[in-house]
Amino acid sequence: MNENEESIKVINVTKNYKLYNKPIDRLQESLSFSGKRYHNLFTALDNVSFSVQKGETVGLLGKNGSGKSTLLKIITGVLSATSGNCKVNGKISSILELGAGFNMEYTGIENIYMNGTIQGLNKKEIDQRLEGILSFADIGDFINQPVKLYSSGMFARLAFALSINVDPDILIVDEALAVGDIKFQTKCFNKFNELRQNGVTILFVSHDITLIRNFCTKAIWLDTGKVRMIGDTVEVTAEYTKFINMDHSVTKENEGSSNSTDILQIPKTIFEPISRWGEYPNLINYVELFNSKNEPTSFFTLNEKISLKVITYVPDGVELKNLSIAFSIKNTLGIDLIVSTTYENDIVITKNKCYIETIFVFENYLTNGEYVINVAVENRGNTIPEYYDYIEGAKYFKSSSKKQVFGMFNVPVEQKIVYLRE
Ligand SMILES: Nc1ncnc2c1ncn2[C@@H]1O[C@H](COP(=O)(O)OP(=O)(O)OP(=O)(O)O)[C@@H](O)[C@H]1O
């Protein structure tokens, strides 16, 4: 296969489901000579087109019911499209519904041979892979028990072990990682990385933005059966996060700094954010990074003191006891490396209808690289923070070190060597 080859090409795919109000309607429709319709049509996929190149790792995002599973089933051939078509170049292995191809009465071993055969392997080829499958699944003697006795974790591990050990060209994974523990997830990702390095194309559905950012080179956002956005993972996930956070809130555009009469005395940053959202998306007025000489800068050396100054407007009507000013530092993959909030530091903001300045001071432990500063005004009244104003990419900076350092963080570590015996 050529490197620039398309692995998956989805062309104008539409999928309509027939919805019947009562089970009897289906029967009546099939018996009707007049061709009377007893169903309503529901469009789960609406003219979806995109392509995935060989070797790409693509994250598929979307709210519940947006059509992700339907799309994956059409790609794998489990389901046919109402119109349009889907071209697949290579051997697909999928983890759509865990253990979908398993016979519950068979033992793990019997299921391995049965599934391997379905995947087109002969007995010798399965024999050769058996050790790899067993060591990945890590279910010990249970492998000789009927799979109906397995815990959901064992089931997942066996299903996974099987799907990735059949030399696929394309691997399709639907949210299945959610069932595994951290050890198993890490093992899966190591294996995915290995497959990726070997040029396997991976299509991956998850609601976990961090996972998608960490793992995928491209993202596709499905919304009510349509492709809403496709492209760079960080950009698509940023827009998607903005969308799910905005969904239930009414944007109060006119609240905040622009209404205030004293705006001239307050410095204002012209932001160049990756994205910005929230209930009051203009409360954050100013964000700047300062070095130890109190000079604004976007270059820091390792172990240098960083001061982050944030000026925000506190509008009327927000509950002050739950109000929090927060910042995070992400790497270019969008992974939060450092998060700090006034709420976790037990700082209570006591006044509204005014500007407040929050200063965060910390030592730079970040090794060489480029970093993104995100700033938020949060409502911490619920377990999951809600955002009054969130700027992803309020500032950007580089960190560099004169000496060679490894890892993401270079924290001071006390070290000593004790000579024990000759
Ligand atoms: N067999 C079916 N008959 C009728 N409607 C269906 C059928 N299968 C799925 N749907 C509907 O199609 C829409 C898309 O479903 P799908 O399972 O593809 O979404 P999804 O994005 O995978 O959702 P989730 O994240 O919850 O798994 C949903 O509204 C669902 O109710």
Q: What would you note in describing this structure?
A:
This protein has two domains: 6-244, Rossmann fold (3-Layer(aba) Sandwich); 251-400, abc- transporter (atp binding component) like domain (Coagulation Factor XIII, Chain A, domain 1, Distorted Sandwich), CATH 2.70.50. Residues 248-264 have low confidence and may be disordered. The longest helix has 16 residues, at 182-197. It has 422 residues and is α/β, with parallel strands linked by helices. A hairpin with a 5-residue loop joins β14 and β15 (336-341). It has eight helices and 18 strands. The protein has helices spanning 23-31, 68-76, 108-118, 123-137, 152-164, 182-197, 209-215, 233-246, and strands at 6-20, 39-53, 57-61, 83-88, 92-95, 170-174, 201-205, 218-223, 226-231, 275-277, 284-290, 299-301, 305-314, 323-330, 336-341, 354-363, 369-379, 386-400. Helix content is 22%, strand content 33%. Strands 5-6-7-3-8-9 form a six-stranded mixed beta sheet, sandwiched between helices. GO terms for molecular function: ABC-type transporter activity; ATP binding; ATP hydrolysis activity.
